[in-house]
Prior knowledge:
The protein has helices spanning 3-6, 13-17, 45-58, 68-88, 102-117, 136-145, 162-168, 191-200, 220-223, 248-253, 288-304, 306-325, 352-361, 374-380, 396-412, and strands at residues 26-27, 30-31, 33-34, 96-99, 123-127, 148-152, 173-179, 204-208, 227-231, 242-246, 264-267, 272-274, 330-332, 342-347, 364-365, 367-369, 385-389. It is of the alpha/beta class and 414 residues long. It folds into 2 domains: 3-44 and 305-412, Aspartate Aminotransferase, domain 1, CATH 3.90.1150.10; 48-303, 3-Layer(aba) Sandwich (Aspartate Aminotransferase, domain 2), CATH 3.40.640.10. The strands form 5 sheets. It has a 7-stranded mixed β-sheet, sandwiched between helices. A 4-stranded antiparallel β-sheet has the order 13-14-17-16, covered by helices on one side. Strand 5, helix 6 (136-145) and strand 6 (148-152) form a beta-alpha-beta unit. The longest helix is centred in the N-terminal third of the chain and has 21 residues, at 68-88.
Amino acid sequence: MNQLVRDIPTVDFGKIRADFPVLNQKVNGEPLVYLDNAASSQMPAQVADRIDRYHRHEHANVHRGIHTLSQKATDEFEATRRKVRDFINAESENEIVYTTGTTDSINLVANSYGLTNFKKGDEIILSEMEHHANIVPWQMIAKRTGAVIRVIPITDAGDLDMEAYKSLLGPKTKMVAIVHISNALGTINPVKEITDLAHEHGAKVLIDGAQSVPHQVVDVQKIGCDFFTFSAHKMCGPTGFGILYGKASLLEEMPPYRGGGDMIDKVSFEETTYNVPPFRFEAGTPPIAAGIGLGSAIDYLNEIGMKQIAQREAELVNYAVKRLKDIDGLKMVGDSADRASVCSFLLDGIHATDAGTILDKRGIAVRTGHHCAQPIMQRYGIPGTARASIAFYNNTEDIDRLVDGIHYVKSFFE
């Protein structure tokens, strides 16, 4: 163990687990084992209570009212922007755009930056391990602009082929859009190196951080990316809210993605002028409670410490991989040496959906299917996997229950 790990203060994760009431329930008569955190994390009572307090005592629209409730709601809502800035180490809170989630953030960049800057023959580089949300918007913009999609292959272990990536870069490359951590494989991509290489060719870089922000320290200035996206509901927050980080110089040049209230400066039938970033991209009444909820979730994660969370989850993932690999007839899908949170697997002769259904009968929640990442499944020649995804409030007992459940699944088909 290196000095850095030794110097990380210890945290009582057993006590923290009690912050999540949902984990105390039974499903199908069995204690719940929740291992679907890559789809959506659970919410601690502190965040749920904060959202409830807003609805009960603070509800008003933001940015418009001079009365006390509106001003209080606005202050709390905008406080989240500052918390996000600090959480990902953005240079300015003006670089933090509120969206409805990672998917919305990527669509915003594709439609605003992409439509403005792409032309016929320009190239957009994606990878085989992208979530559909980081594929389809770029395909739609490519069709409208004449741009071309280029794809980085992945290795059998589930790593990006970096030599292939380097060969794809060139003068026509305008955008590189890459996932930070794969939701289907758990692979942690070398996003700083990817960004540095793209910038050498004058390309912009968007990082899909939906799976990285909940699990490790993220520093967008250190990465150097131009855009970074993530969602509240994967980091102990509510659904329907997300973040787009964009470098200030780029946001200032980008046109609005949607029109409506709050994103305007002056409106007349002859001409409308637009607000400054980030408000230029935030049309209409936002999901205020969800925004305040994200701020509370960030407070909660900061109180634990992201380094502590990363260390805890690394220990759990290593334990899970070791135990799963000891099961006869189980094949891991994706085996990168640099991975986080996710363990995807197949059982010989057993469809993943069948396995997931039987595990659910024993109170074990895993995800089955293609995980909105069909190109990965095509790469490996499979229809889908069973995926166990881990969060800091899980424990080794959850993993042991999963392993026992898999043995039961196997016995069911013998």
